[in-house]
Amino acid sequence: MANKTIVVEQVRSPIGRPAAQRQTLRGLGLNKIGRKSTLVDTPAVRGMVDSVAHLVRIVESK
Question: How far apart are CA 35 and CA 18, in angstroms?
Fold first, then answer.
């Protein structure tokens, strides 16, 4: 059984944001604008993406 994945791209800087949001970006594997990370589509990952939705965008879902 293949797990669904999502590709998340960082589109804004975490400068001036709370430490928790910066740590969430690092947890998603992002640390610079334009970086992309392929992640397994789980409720935990979706929650992390939702908490920093203003800094990232979902490029594609498979």
Answer: 20
Domain that holds residue 24: 5-61
Q: Which residues of 34-44 are buried (b: 16+ CB within 10 A; e: fewer)?
A: eeebebeeeee
How many domains does the chain divide into? 1
What residues contact 38, with CB distance under 8 A and at least 6 apart?
Answer: 5, 6, 7
CATH number, domain with residue 12: 3.30.1390.20
SS3 16: coil
How do residues 2-60 score in pLDDT, each as one tens digit? 689 999 999 999 999 999 999 999 999 999 999 999 999 999 999 999 999 999 999 98
